[in-house]
Amino acid sequence: MAISAVAVLAVMGSRGTSADEPLRSLTPVAVDGPQQPIDPFADRGLSESERERLYAEIAVEADELERRSRLLRKVTALVTPTVVHIDTKKASSADREGEASEDESGSGVITMVADQTVVLTNRHVIYGAELDAIRIRLDDGRELRPTRVWTDPATDIGVMAIPGNRLQTARVAQDDRLEIGDTVLAVGSPFGLAHSVTLGIVSAKGRRDLDLGEGNVRFQDFIQTDAAINPGNSGGPLVNLRGEVVGLNTAIASNSGGSEGIGFAIPVSMVMFVAEQLVETGSVSRAYLGVTLDRRFSQRTADRLALVRPVGARVSGVTKSGPAENAGIRIDDVILEYNGVAVDDDDHLVSLVSTTPAGRTVALRVYRDRRSQTINVPVGVREAFER
Is residue 177 classed exposed, middle or buried when 0-12, 13-18 and 19+ CB atoms within 10 A define those classes? Predict the structure, then answer.
């Protein structure tokens, strides 16, 4: 950056005392021959002993950071062989008869689902491509074609059965203990650069109002992370420091088209709920509660119900002969907990119901008439009510 003469003078003046004060006197040393130039700031440098002391302090502190780096290297060594690069050729939107085609690439992770070796990825990476138009490239350079593909548009999850031996599979986290601030790694093929690893933290949880593509991703409960996610990362794993998959990288919020520190991943609990049903039955069956929820639950309504603030999900309608009505749920009931999980809002309740197996009995803690009570509801099968 260019600096004007005035600016330079101002900076120099700030390091002295005043323009009229003379510099401290410097006693020249008498020498034979031409005098040596003098550095008036020579005494400001570090002595040799000071340099040695700083090196010793750095070594201790760097060892702490290097231990963390060694952990990250171990996690990367475990996860990288399970991550694949996916290339697809699809009939273009302009010509679905196959004369024109468009290429798409993404990522995926190999794991075991219902005793089958599969690749988990995003539906939008593979949807619309024939089996022989999907190329899966492994970490060791081998290329495979899927033998079968399943997708779920309501969550943007895709599953591919793959052949082959000597396939390393990723370990999947068995619970949802992930918290805001936890360190995570995103692995994938951004811009076609296979097996790139980025580091970040969990920035937020429960993002449920994202406008994704065609807008048909109905059930959302995204993890937000600042680990760099770029085009081509879609379908790759989000991993914790134990080397376990905790999410499936799916989307970014960006003005430029590249990473700006706001990425989103589907929680692994939702991924496995969908994937297991797709592999076992070929479709996804979700629970049905049978309530309409107040999307504009306001402070005014909370005041009417004698609540300090709008919290939980207010029931604004009940489906006739549905599970909720049969269990005694009423209009103006506020659902505070679902199977022991505190309900944030209406979208959160929809997400919780969507990952509940059909036919299970769930415990709802409901606020009604200034007190709370627990109501057990045997949930129904969504497909039986939504036709």
Answer: exposed
Q: Is 2.30.110.10 the CATH classification of the domain at 57-283?
A: no
Is the entire prediction scored with pTM above 0.90?
A: no
For residue 337, the cross-strand partners are 342, 365
Question: What confidence tier does 38 reach under pLDDT thresholds 50, 70, 90?
Answer: confident
Which pLDDT belongs to residue 258? 65
Q: Tokens for 370?
A: 């200034």
Q: Which residues are catalytic?
A: 124, 156, 234
The bridge status of strand 171-172 relative to strand 244-252 is parallel
pLDDT digits (tens, 9 = 90+) for 139-155: 999 999 999 999 999 99
For residue range 236-246, list pLDDT tens digits in order.
Answer: 999 999 999 99
pLDDT of residue 44: 72
Average pLDDT of 315-319?
Answer: 96
Distance CA 375, CA 313 (A): 15
Are 301 and 311 in contact by the 8 Å Cβ rule? The answer is: no
Q: Regarding the domain with residue range 287-385, which homologous superfamily does it belong to in the CATH classification?
A: PDZ domain (2.30.42.10)
Q: Compute the distance between CA of residue 30 and CA of residue 273 in angstroms, rounded to an integer.
A: 87
Range(s) of the chain covered by CATH 2.30.42.10:
287-385
pLDDT band of residue 7 (cuts 50, 70, 90) is: very low
Residue 267 has pLDDT above 80, yes or no: yes
